[in-house]
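Full entry
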Amino acid sequence: MGIVNVTPDSFFDGGNYFSIDLAVEHALALAAQGAGVIDVGGQSTRPGALAVSAEKECERIAPVIEELSKKTGVIISVDTFHATVAEKALDRGAHWVNDVSSGRFDCDMPFLIAEKRCPVILMHGRKTPQTMQSDPYYGDVIAEVKRELEERIEAFKKAGVSRENIIIDPGIGFAKRLQDNLALLSHCKELTALGFPVCLGTSRKSFIGHITGEPAIDRLEGSLASIAPAFEAGVKIFRVHDVKATKSFLDVLFAIKVHA
């Protein structure tokens, strides 16, 4: 899953693709590099990011998705927690919804997904992007993340969403301390055992910098290292900035695995 941030303030590439033409060009390049899914977002959800309105978010991403749907056959995902934005994106050609709040921020989202019968990524998190890193705490991060994801899964199923359309994401870096992120990555098998496809987003995140001491621009190697145990545990979807390098890395891991 290649990341396209149509935002001025995302932590790694904010402002780089903040126009329709640049965003579409970047998305097509990621598809050419091997991305099977393009995730288009118009609102930064990095820690401390300021929220933008649904109207502004839609203004940023709807034309990108519409243009992209004309030019590529890859899956297009819309990264939003607003049901109104998701609906417009789906109407413009998006196929999936990636909701970092799992419907916590907009109670209409489960019903929209049920109506549209589209896949949805339900990501674990607590609080909001503005407050999520304010003293997060877990007694047992694996058990608590699993339980809270299961609660969101049930909310979507009760709204009529098919089990087959649910993908889960442990929310690395979202309301998590370094030790929480590492624990989740080392116990991905407990997440895949829930029986849903798992999406993982570790690309260039700050927890890698806490380990290596490197800024986001120099975290590619750390990002690749972070996904290796998840691949072994059966994670199927990796949300990344660096599609070419990640695909090569995963291709080699896969070749070794099938010939073991």
